[in-house]
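#structure-requests
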Amino acid sequence: MSIDVRQRIHEQVTTHPVVLYMKGSPKLPQCGFSANAIRILGALGVNELFTVDVLQDAEIRQGIKDYANWPTIPQLYVRGEFIGGSDIMTEMFQSGELKQLLEDMI
């Protein structure tokens, strides 16, 4: 991964409180996992969500996998910290942990 791509990703995850790297957009997710992530964040009432459509940028699509050392998309970041993908988000949502993590942002 180039330094430029790493820097762009770092800037995105540190300047926005909640960032979701996904396939498609919140209104038109392009995979079931991205749709699930959007549903969860919507159910929690997250309104300051910054999304990045990895299908629009091949460098970011690969770069985000390297950045987090996580092979799949979507990927959720909160306050610059990698939280996980769709399965982890689902588990955290069901346990109430994700709501706690996002409490001051909803």
